[in-house]
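Exocyst complex component SEC15B
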Amino acid sequence: MLEKKIPAIRSHIERRVNKEFGDWLVEIRIVSRNLGQLAIGQASAARQREEELRMKQRQAEEQSRLSLRDCVYALEEEDDDGFGGIGDEGKDGYSNGGSGMFGFDLTPLYRAYHIHQTLGLEDRFKQYYFENRKLQLTSDFQVSSMTPFLESHQTFFAQIAGFFIVEDRILRTGGRLISKMEVENLWDTAMSKMCSVLEDQFSRMQTANHLLLIKDYVSLLGVTLRQYGYPVDALLDVLSKHRDKYHELLLSDCRKQIAEALAADKFEQMLMKKEYEYSMNVLSFQLQTSDITPAFPYVAPFSSTVPDCCRIVRSFIEDSVSFMSYGGQLDFYDVVKKYLDRLLTEVLDGALLKLINTSIHGVSQAMQVAANMVVLERACDFFFRHAAQLSGVPLRMVERSRRQFPLNKARDVAEEMLSGLLKQKVDGFMTLIENVNWMADEAPQSGNEYVNEVIIYLETLVSTAQQILPVQVLKRVIQEVLSHIAEMIVGALLGESVKRFNINAIMGIDVDVRLLESFAENQAPLLSDADANQLKTALVEARQLSNLLLSSHPENFLNPVIRERSYNSLDHRKVVIISEKLKDQPDRLFGTFGSRAYKQNPKKKSLDAMIKRLKDVN
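Structure:
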């Protein structure tokens, strides 16, 4: 009787066990998702602890006042809780039978497996298990077209992570239910699918931050599953492959932000009323020139463009480092530096050039931009140091490899524009040179009208500019302007409007040049004696021409040694043209006209000889 019922009992047991197993298959999908999210969350928490520890280390290194003991304490006060692998024996809370801390219960599976072994159906169950799990994994690969991948990527990857955490556990504790080869085959399939999905989704994305968010989560997925022995290099290769696209999008974002920041600038010095404003706009980017906190309200030498652009560049660096971190490449500073160079030389320098060429019209605006460029030069040093610190590179390596200022084109154009605008202003006063009496009966003792107006303007300019421009920039600009004035003086003597002049007029020009030289010397307290002497050299052409025309022996110009020493800035063709105008003066300049005892003035004779020789050279 009992023997007849055995098939029915056997069939009942199979149905009952299969139902329990089917319920477990449904439940394990939900459990896997939660398990994957929790495991990736633990990886994220561990990473956050690492970042905090690095930040404390950087702070300790920067605070030179800390003693060695203080530094050690600052670095070791972090607790020692690490990220233990969820699947490690004795740590994960799993048990073969009951529910673990994650609700991860394998009892129904192992019961079904044991019963099928008892019934002699082990191979069939193993095949049935593998096929069902493979179907589940295939279902997990589906990416919804209704939901943006940015919103669904965490669920997508967490589901797959949980699946393989479960399979790792079953491989280690489930007897021969599934083989290592089968798990590896499933993983290869999953890896291929995840890479394909990432490639497709990354190719569609046009927002840098979206790529960064997904990259961060994928790198956490890699950290999580690597702990279980799954190879994740192919995933990291996909992330690395899209490094260029990410940075191109990031550069595009920064280009827009920088354009907006420059457009909003009023080219006025920033006023900071509180210490926190000073900290946020100056100390944050190491723009201070002194360790002493200024009194408030504080007027900075730069406009809002500087801290606004600094914030954009700093954010770029941090985003770049975030994308490169945990992507399988340990030494990535060179990559970050390469894109930082591009941001500065292509984007920021280009935007500043465009601003200077299209929006700067007045001297005050040009002066402010030139002042900004000097501060940005200090900021660029901070940018590369900041990138090195975040990339884990010693600062001494950055100091060794320091390159030229990446914004040098904009800096040079800014100074050129400022010099050009100042020259235009000076040109307005230099038109008064037309009022000079070139055939004066007496030499003017206090200089001609034009030079007095020019000097008043230059003194006013220096008084204003020294409040904004660093002294070296001010020196370069003033030197350009003085050189221009000297050219204008020589140009007036050379030009068609002056047909001839006498020695009194040249003596007046000599006084003008001396007044300009005196102005240059008077800048020594602001600059230095050496810089003031450099300013004087800007007038050298006018000075040497005046000396030559007033010399008792102008033929010395023909002597190579004397010429190199005293007249090296003079072009002999200009000398010929100008000297001939002096020659055409009334003879009374060189002697008594009409006198029977007339004898040619030695200076006139010397001048004529010089002109003849120089013409022969031509």
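The radius of gyration is 41 Å.
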